[in-house]
Amino acid sequence: MTAHQHQQREGSLYALAMFVSGTFSTVIMKTEYGVRAEGTETCVDPADPRALTMLCPFDKPWFGVLQMKLAMALVLVFLYVRKAVTHADYLATPLLRLRKDGKRYMNTPEAAAINKRHGGGGNGARRGHEAQSLLPRTGLPAPPAAEAASVPLKTMAAVALPAVLDLLQTVLANVGLLWISSSVFQMARGSVIIFSAVFSVRLMGKRLYGYHYMSIFIVAVSVALVGWAGVGHGGSGSGGGEGGATDPAAESEAWNALLGLGFIVAAQVLTALQIVVEEHMMIALNVSPMLLVGLEGLWGLVFYVVLVPVLTLSPAGASGFSKIWHEDFADSFTKVGNSPTLVALILAYIVAVGTLNVAGNYVTKHLSAVMRSITETLRTLGVWMLSLFVYYVLKWQGPHSAGEPWTVYSWLELLGFVLMVYGTLAYKKLISIPLRALYAAEQREHAAAYKSPYMSTLHK
């Protein structure tokens, strides 16, 4: 077996791990919301609507965020263990991997060290840094191990900003997951491409071409269709009957589904802003993706030292909006202590999210960012298939089930999914929209660049 074949095989295994862990992470969180356990709070007894019980669902979005932050922080443990086992000089992995004219380039800690030692000052130094930050992956002298043995305090402090954005978008998404199905949740997150494009243009000065705008339009239509299907699922009741729309309970579920969808879309606005901040940070501070994930998780745990008492002591509300500012952590930990099922689900979720973060990085490293995008798409489909499996095969049905039935709105959701996949792949130029005019401006710019001796050299 050649080195290339070994790399492809290893990358395929990581892609499989990414698909499985990504699929189960979403469904496990939805499953946690449906588990009933005895705590300190009371709720309406499902067997007798006139009575109260302390055996309530574990609908705790902030506790879900805490689980995710713990899983992200464990990535740091993985990095340090890997460094010790492999006797590597560096804690972090390369953060950029480009291919140009048949040559592979990486932005590595070695390149950053060379720039630091030989960059000089002034405008010439900045140009030298830009030119040297993409160096061939071989033939680079390694700087002293002390230069990369620890994470600079400046880097750790800077990561606090994307960590805040990540925490906020995660809790908004988790609140939204309370009221919509796992598949709609996963598909609605595809709307991030819309807001990411806006922030890339406004904040980073990137230019969009015709096919970008058409792709964004397709994704927007797909999100509308998926959202319509999600509200329809809620209005059709747990059994998916057509007469459920006139039932007051079903109407309330439909409004909750609409509210949940709004939370998820709002989360994607923050996610898009987070992506832009992280992209700038990875380049400016030479922070690898996995190191960034680990530091964000560590910051999240630090934030929770303050958040836990604040959320517990804040006033509770009757509306779904109160999930944003109130969560009784005393009740949460009591429920966990009284339910071995919850303990098992929490551990499984932490393992799944940790595996997803590590495997996703290795898919990009051993295969490509294209394969990571394709795996993410398959993950969305996997979440939907697993939800149907839970409903029809495991027979877990009802308002708090992690499964979902196939209703008339599922066909609308399927159409939205197909359009979302098409729009996302077209935006990333993995497939082409059959309208040549959409690519004309980009082709003209590339042709003009290669006609100019200066631009031709620059683009190489």
Query: Approximately how much beta-strand content do the residues carry?
Result: 5-15%
Helix content: 55-70%
Contiguous uncertain segments of 5+ residues: 94-148, 238-245, 452-460
Number of discrete helical segments: 18
Task: Summarize the main sheet.
Answer: 3 strands, antiparallel
Number of strands: 5
Query: What overall form do the CA principal axes indicate?
Result: globular
Structural class: mainly alpha
Order of helices and strands: HEEHEEHHEHHHHHHHHHHHHHH
What is the total number of structural domains?
Answer: 2
N- and C-termini, Cα separation: 33 Å
Task: Write a short abstract of this structure.
The chain is mainly α and 460 residues long. The protein contains 18 helices and 5 strands. A hairpin with a 2-residue loop joins β1 (36-45) and β2 (48-57).
Description:
69% of the residues lie in helices and 7% in strands. It is mainly alpha-helical and 460 residues long. It has two domains: 3-92 and 148-429, no CATH class; 95-147, no CATH class. Strands 3-4-5 form a three-stranded antiparallel sheet. Strands 1-2 form a two-stranded antiparallel ribbon. Strand 1 and strand 2 form a beta hairpin. Helix 1 (3-34) runs parallel beside helix 15 and helix 2 (61-86) runs antiparallel to helix 11. The longest helix is centred in the middle third of the chain and has 37 residues, at 248-284. It starts with a helix and ends with a helix. The model is unreliable at 94-148, 238-245 and 452-460 (pLDDT under 50).
